Structure of AP_endonuc_2 domain-containing protein:
Amino acid sequence: MILNRPGIASMSLGKPWVHNLPDKLLQAAVHGFQGIELFFDDLDCYAHRAFNGDHLEAAHQTRTLCNNLGLTIICLQPFSMYEGLLDRAESDRLINDKLPRWFRLARALGTDMIQVPCNFLGPDPQTGAARTTGDRTVIVRDLQRLADLGAGAGFRFVYEALCWGDHVDTWEASWEIVRAVDRSNFGLCLDSFNIAGRVYADPLSASGKTPHAAADMAASLQRLRAAQIDPSKIFYVQLVDGERLASPLDANHPFHLAGQPARMSWSRNARLFPLEESRGGYLPILDIARVFFDDIGFRGWVSLELFSRTLADPSPTTPADHARRGIESYIKMGRLLQWQDHAIMETIVDVSCQSVGTEAPLQHRL
């Protein structure tokens, strides 16, 4: 019996406007992935390239492609920059205008889940004034409003802390909010990169680590064990590593972007698949994964959500290269974590890679 299912984000197979969504979906399926986190940017690109900007038609066709390839669309994401806005008119616009459109797209895609990252809007770039509030009452009320509208339409939301978030930048903060929202259709995404990226890693440091990285990471994981999170409240997990940079990500670093938090710049340019130590991976991914699977007992979608400068490589092999790296990482993780299904997974991948060629033009392969 397969206990966990490998997924990958569409953005993690090639940058939109550089690599086509259908090609990326094909490579995900060929290499053994079973699920896709679908990024709106990919859908937007596909709509404008193939359907005169008709997002709904692009969503229907994406669903058809995924059905033909045996892929499940795990979620549509990211429904971002929403909760805790000081501009309440903008909050209402997102609820009254954007959300119904996303419901229509998600329904056309055949998924019942929308991912919501914590707000990282940051201060106004002109005035420096805050644009979000850290008031948990406001944040929770906003997310309850979202969840209640979703429940009426048959949708779930999965909430994720980002290590550069304005006010929610740890797993503890996101879990506190999920508990306070207290809706059955509102759950948690736990991401190894964002967990380690906040308490263990510091791209502004010459070492790439916080001053007490090992101790702080161990304490965070012990709190995660002790929290006794109901696995059913974790809608899926993400396993990703990060690259140790050769120099601090300060104003002189090529990844630096004025006004953007260093951890966000690092994330956008230098994530790695788990266990890619040869490429500079250094986060304690196995320690985090053991808490997810052994201590909490999570079973379900395991998504590899990679962002990297390598995704912009215009080579036509970029989607295949990243799909191969991702599934090799997933299988290695399965072995080291002693998942009961890792041998089955290897067989599935072997059969998939043999049954569909990767060189023929896409229209001859679907």
User: Anything to note?
Assistant: The first helix runs from residue 21 to 30. The chain is about 45% helix and 10% strand. The two ends are 29 Å apart (CA to CA). The longest strand covers residues 72-77.
